[in-house]
Write a structure and sequence with these properties.
The complex is a heterodimer.
Chain A lengths: L7 H18 L2 H21 L3 H24 L4 H6 L1 H6 L5 H30 L7 H26 L6 H27 L5 H29 L2
Chain B lengths: L12 E10 L2 E11 L4 E5 L6 H9 L6 E6 L2 E2 L4 H6 L1 E4 L11 H11 L6 H10 L15 H16 L8 E5 L7 H16 L3 E5 L12 E5 L16
Helix pairs in contact in B: 3-4, 3-5
Classes of the chains: A mainly alpha, B alpha/beta.
Chain lengths: ~230, ~240
């Protein structure tokens, strides 16, 4: 047989490399959500005033809400362009498992949008006078939480990808799903500011991460099949 | 009816009692199709008669309202991997990314479908679709016809071996935006493919010029317009 069966790892790397290549040649996808994140966070000190005490009190919430919105803004690119040019159909018709294709695309999305957010977050935390003890908690919650945002968001995108104007519907579908991550992440950062252990909140975010990592790709695969029907 | 091959017992792809409803309109009803190795099937019908819907149902992209599609007498959803290895579906959209160049696009499309390929064979295949010199051009700088040629290049790659890598070709308007010589070359390619034991199901508004009328099996979809004149479909 001339068909070579690619290993799951090879398929994963193939799709990952493709998505990263496309993103690097289309830099708006990386830069725009990041700029949005920075601008939203900087608006708060301007609007509320520069008192360090007020800002450090609301800093975790601001950073996390801005991260949610920036992720939401970038979600559309996950499947939309592939759907519009027909490559999504070709992926679904390939002999490779949809699970692997989907998880590679989501991982690429996180590398493009989630990772830059994590890297720039400490700078913005300085701007908001975040309590010094909270930096570790901020980074850890972002590291565990942003993949959850990409994974859960992918379900929403897969459901709305066939619609002409799915943008608002997407935010209505996805934002409620982000609430648990937001609650536990900000709670962990606040707890850290008091110098108390926050491993409980982290464990719950980690559970959300592993739960969505294992289940979301199936939901996305099923939703994509419905969307291309 | 097999044309230039000895008759095969089992059909490569078959469908029973397909019913398709779109926007509360019945496009076809109780349509049964059998396609054997060595056959070329042309789906005909006016715009909006359900040609694309039929092809998408056969490829497993859309669900019929009623009916089943079989590959080697197995339901396509049960034999997904095997069916997809043998299926080459090209729809209206070429599936070409503007941010990647011609060679990268072809490489990805082939690798995704499990065909081994290296830089030289990619170049050779692109040469067959007259894209020599465009390997490194980003697809967004190429024309619609050239996009289509990139996606059609997979057909050429499929017939280079003695046995076709993909037996079932489902092609939705493959000649769109292709020039005359290109259409001629494609028809020759179809001949090689069916001689190797593959089958072709396509829609096109042009006649296949180099095929004799008896070689091409036709399915006419005009159920939505006239209930009594459906050829090759069993209507209850």
């Amino acid at each position: 047989m001339p068909i070579s069966n690619l290993s799951y790892r090879a398929v994963f790397l193939l799709v990952l490399k493709r998505d990263l290549t496309i993103a690097l040649r289309h830099k708006d996808d990386i830069v725009n959500p990041l700029l949005f994140f920075v601008i939203v966070v900087t608006l708060f000190p301007l609007g509320i005033g520069p008192e360090a005490q007020t800002l450090s009190r609301i800093a975790p919430g601001i950073i996390w809400v801005a991260a949610l919105l920036a992720t939401l803004l970038s979600l559309d690119r996950l499947f939309k362009s592939d759907h519009n040019d027909g490559s999504l159909e070709q992926m679904l018709l390939s002999p490779q498992p949809v699970f692997i294709l989907v998880i590679a695309k989501i991982f690429a999305h996180w590398l493009i949008t989630g990772l830059p957010l994590i890297l720039i977050a400490p700078l913005l935390a300085v701007l908001l006078h975040l309590n010094e003890q909270s930096y570790g908690a901020l980074m850890l919650t972002l590291l565990l939480g942003t993949p959850v945002l990409s994974l859960l968001g992918a379900i929403g995108v897969a459901l709305t990808v066939g619609l002409k104007k799915g943008g608002v519907l997407l935010s209505l579908l996805v934002l409620p799903l982000y609430i648990p991550v937001l609650i536990f992440a900000t709670s962990a950062i606040d707890t850290a500011a008091l110098g108390l252990p926050y491993s409980g909140q982290l464990a719950i975010i980690a559970a959300l991460f592993f739960g969505s990592l294992t289940l979301a790709p199936f939901a996305v695969g099923a939703a994509l099949k419905v969307s291309t029907n | 009816m097999p044309v230039n091959q000895r008759p095969h017992k089992t059909s490569l792809i078959s469908a029973t009692n397909l019913t398709c409803i779109r926007e509360e309109r019945l496009l076809f009803d109780q349509l049964s199709i059998e396609v054997h190795a060595g056959e070329i099937v042309q789906v005909e019908g006016p715009n909006g008669s359900g040609k694309t819907s039929l092809l998408r149902i056969l490829a497993g992209l859309s669900q019929p309202f009623e009916g089943e599609v079989f590959f080697n007498n197995e339901l396509i959803h049960h034999a997904r991997e095997e069916f997809h290895q043998n299926l080459l579906y090209l729809g209206h959209l070429p599936g070409v990314k503007g941010e990647m160049n011609a060679a990268e696009n072809l490489h990805f499309n082939l690798a995704l479908h499990g065909t081994t390929n290296d830089a030289i064979s990619i170049e050779e295949t692109l040469a067959k679709v007259n894209l020599t010199g465009f390997e490194d051009s980003l697809a967004s700088h190429l024309s619609a016809g050239q996009h289509r040629r990139i996606s059609l290049a997979r057909l050429y790659k499929s017939v280079v071996q003695e046995m076709p890598t993909t037996k079932i070709w489902i092609l939705d308007e493959p000649f769109t935006a292709i020039d005359k010589q290109g259409v001629h070359a494609l028809e020759q390619l179809f001949k090689v493919h069916i001689a190797q034991g593959g089958c072709v199901i396509l829609t096109t508004h042009q006649d296949l010029l180099t095929f004799e009328a008896s070689q091409v099996k036709k399915i006419t979809l005009d159920y939505a317009f006239d209930e009594n004149s459906s050829v090759d479909s069993s209507i209850e």
